[in-house]
Amino acid sequence: MSRRRIGIDVGGTKCLGVVLDDAGVVIEEQRRPTPPGTEAFVDTLAELATALGVTDSLGIGVPGMVTRSGVIKASPNLIDITDFEVGRMLSERLGFLVEVGNDATCAAAAEWQVGAARGATEMVMVTLGTGIGGGVIAGGQLIRGANGFTGEIGHMVVDPEGLPCPCGRRGCWERYASGSGLAQLARVAAIGKRLRRVVQLAGGDPDNVRGENVQAAAREGDVEALNVIDLFGRWVALGLVNLTNVLDPQMFVLGGGLAASGDLYLGPIQKWFTELLYAPDLRPHPQLVFASLGERAGAVGAALMTELR
């Protein structure tokens, strides 16, 4: 009898649930809005799992710091949910153990098992979205850390006197190398009387410049926008170099919203990676690829997490 492995990826606005067959292929999916508050949160996850036909295997991926026992310690994108035992509450509701992990860790598991990094033994997943998340495969194992917090790479400090981060510190990598970081770099350049085409695409207001405006202008060949893309690529590469010096991976898999326009960023990232890497001519460079599972990666990985615990 075919297994129904079910995973749910929780985002700030929606919960995406999928059912995998034995080969790891998505055979069904459903969505629900992400509600505020702990009681409604558990109700929504339980209802979605039931609608997908859950019987004995459920994994949940959530943003933020998640312990090995399924406690959401902190999550910037989930309203009124802190230090919350979602794993225990769902297990009691459904009658079997529910595996809960960080959403980027789940995405890493998915790309490693059935996606772009299949067969790799040393891999780092980097999700470039509103912030930056990560997941680590080392020695052919999914690394979760002593407490379950491995992968909070977006809060690696790259400029101690830099931009304030929602986490309360300054100069975190995600302030410069995420989707919101790209928009911030562009707004600074626009206020400096540059990026005329980008500002035009933003309706004429430099304060409204978004990453999408930069991408659109860059695809038109706008030199000013391409300069911002190059600067952004340098910030991405800086973090990747730091991770390479610590972990020495075979490959990086870049996912998240920015991966959809990866062709714009790959060249600058690779150029700056070589420029910034320690002893670049004396070592193999990790392969840099883009995720293949798209927005389903977190949910697919959540479904697989029950087998990787």
What does this protein structure show overall?
The protein has ten helices and twelve strands. It folds into two domains: 5-112 and 296-308, Nucleotidyltransferase, domain 5 (2-Layer Sandwich), CATH 3.30.420; 119-291, ATPase, nucleotide binding domain (Nucleotidyltransferase, domain 5, 2-Layer Sandwich). Helix 1 crosses helix 2 (86-94) and helix 7 packs across helix 8. A five-stranded mixed β-sheet has the order 3-2-1-4-7. Strands 10-9-8-11-12 form a five-stranded mixed β-sheet, with helices on both faces. Strands 5-6 form a two-stranded antiparallel sheet. The longest helix is centred in the C-terminal third of the chain and has 25 residues, at 223-247. The protein is of the alpha/beta class and 309 residues long. It is globular, with a radius of gyration of 20 Å. A hairpin with a 3-residue loop joins strand 1 (5-10) and strand 2 (14-20). The chain starts with a strand and ends with a helix.
